Amino acid sequence: MYNKKFDPLSAKYEGHEAVVMLSIQREINNILNSYVGWFDPLCELIQNALDSVEKRMEMEKQPYDPKLNIIIDIKDNKISVTDNGIGFEEEEYVKFLAPNFSFKNGKTRGHKGVGATYLAYGFNYIQIATKSPNFEAVGVMRNARKWLSDEAPSGNPKVEPDSNPVVDSVFNDIDRGVSVTIKYDSTTYPKNLSWIGIDHAKEWLDVLRIKTGLGAICDNKEIDINVIVIDKNGEKTTESKKGIGYLSISEFVSKSQNYTMIQNKMSELFDKNEPQFRMPTKLSNLEAIYDKWEYTKILSVLKFDEEQRLLIEEHRPTLIFFYVYSTNVWNKINDKIGIRKGLNVLYGGIQIAANNMPQGELIQIPLNKNIGRQNQAHIVLHFEKCSADLGRKGFKKEITDLAKEISRKLLDGPLMKTKQCFKKNTGAAPDLIREKKVSEWKEQMVEHEKNHPLQLENDNFFKPLHRISITSMPTREQDVIALFNQLIAGGVIRGIRIMATNERSTYDGLYRIVIEEPTENHIYNKEKNPLGIDEEIVERFKESSEDGFVSEPNVLEYKFSLDGLVEDVENGLKNTNDIGLVVAWEAGELYKRNYYIESLLLEENISLRSYHGVTHRLRDISTSEYVSELILLKDLILYLCDYDKCIEFQEKYDEE
Hints:
This protein has 18 helices and 22 strands. The protein is an alpha+beta fold.
């Protein structure tokens, strides 16, 4: 049993001078900064384990059952991955954590020599256990992440012999292999395993088959995968699977079919001179169409110029695609997986893969027409002879451009011809009127009015009664429109003039901003005019026009929830660049995919309110750029009725 302390960094650098240490810290920090994905720790641990068992499969002459054991311990905030692969020899064990050291070749999933460094120095606890015919060791390194942020460290963190039991007891039963455990904490990224929102082994296995090496593009049916999840209450679930391979959509939808089978049947019917042919039942009313093509089929089905053909022949892409009749299918799949709302792991876009595993984030499919379809296809493209950069953030431009071009041609060509096979998408969401007869609807509305009354009384508004005439909280978009117009008529919201409302055009309506005398009606006053704007802004409006300010027409959108707007934008039906104001009852959850909300009800943000009545702003989560003004009526009502409770609720937007 190996029983010595060692410093992983001494494998690359000699001496302990301060300048050398700072250089090492910068190098490691650069590596850590390249890892920005929530699943990166699991990706690294799993890819190393898979490389190890596959190498042993090549080496072994005796019967061998390759195995991975993955423990997601939400209660103790740690993960363990154990394999019965080749294990480490002593030289590998003492060097593999150092930056840019790798004992792998380019044929393995990981070979750049940075992943192990990320695991070791990106966390404050790592336990490494290994056994091979000539070497055995259990070591632990603590507080490496804290050391990185220390400008004057007293010494380097060291891997010390660990007399404690190996965290994953499965390691004790294997003849050789490696077990690695890391712990998350407030200084690491991610910080908490519970954030993703799933706590069962089946759900975790599904996610890992999309985001890690378990989602292999080239299947390996020999590897046994076992996933154990311990939830925050200590309850344990287990899920096992034989083989690795990318998660198939057919496991989640009620009716799907292979594209090649559909195409063969179409050709057969067409050859029978049946131009108006009807597809058989098993090939119609589908929720999804899927297939897997090798590069030779890509070249035979799709048309490319000479330069693109040469790239395809060089990188030999493998194509997996799932094409769905509606983007709601993705929402249903993510709901079935159980992942946190707004955090979709399977959605429309391009997933580039290399080294037999998905890498990086989804890329949008660049369509020039009918762009809503770009979110209906999930396309995986695996390229040979290429790798992502450090941290799996991205690929060379020629690879991403080629992936986009293949995906665009696929959607605009072969998949365009399969639309007749899809289930008809009525777009009609169930609601109170459609689901119930009129009498039942009336009863339900009476009950809703009783359980969810809308009360707003204020001496400054709704003269002469000083109370709103709507009796219950909105349940749908039409209720939002009625409530919004009452708030304008009652003087709660001032300066917005509705020009037009149109259900048949792309957008719901047009409005103008009007600032006229007496301008005091627009100035913020916490008691009498809480939705007003800064006096300085009012003065600027007055300076721009002596006769009062009247804006150009702006686009107005009504939604019960911002979820509806997000879906419209993602489906290509609407463009946020066109929209000036969104009026909704509540924020919903889907906006968190690409946006964040800035509350203008907080007193410190009043100066940001551009005109009377605006309660929030929608901003791009990546760039923080302004997207649209918002009036969230649920927040507005709470603001006027219970100020303290509303402010407490508003602060949650910042926390998110």
